Amino acid sequence: VICLLFLTGCGFELQNTGDLKQTINIIHIQTNDPYTVFYRNIKNQFRENGIRVTDNREEAAYVLVIEKDFSNDRVLSISAKNTPKEYEIVYQVQWSLFKDKTQLISNVKHLELQDYSFDQNQLLGKSKEAEFIMDSLATRISRAVLTRLGNI
């Protein structure tokens, strides 16, 4: 407890817990697909950090360009009956950041992977698990993006 009080008293902050709004107050997110899990997640993360997300590019000093937002799953192992036993979910995002017309950060790539077991008898539950994992991977990437933006 004393150590915790000391750390908070001296101004220590965990990475990316600072006020990102001091650097970026309005941002535009440019993407080809505004319906992906990552897009929704990063948009919510910005709002939770007090950053206004605008649809008007001219209104924002900062523009986050999502160049690649790709997710997929693949079979890792199959049973003796030739049915899938294990899947791997892959989520990849590539992005750049512009301030006005100047590129501040260029072509940053994030790749997250996670596997899960599959059971044909639990199809509904396993599809929900896959959705949860996809959301979790998008959240990890969103936090990595915010951490990087916190360092500009």
From TrEMBL:
Query: Which InterPro entries does this UniProt record tie to the protein?
Result: LPS_assembly_LptE
GO MF terms listed in the record are: lipopolysaccharide binding
Q: Does the keyword Chloroplast apply?
A: no
- UniProt keyword list: Cell outer membrane, Membrane, Signal
Gene Ontology CC, one term: outer membrane
One GO-annotated biological process of the protein: Gram-negative-bacterium-type cell outer membrane assembly
Protein name from the UniProt record: LPS-assembly lipoprotein LptE
Q: Which organism is it from?
A: marine metagenome
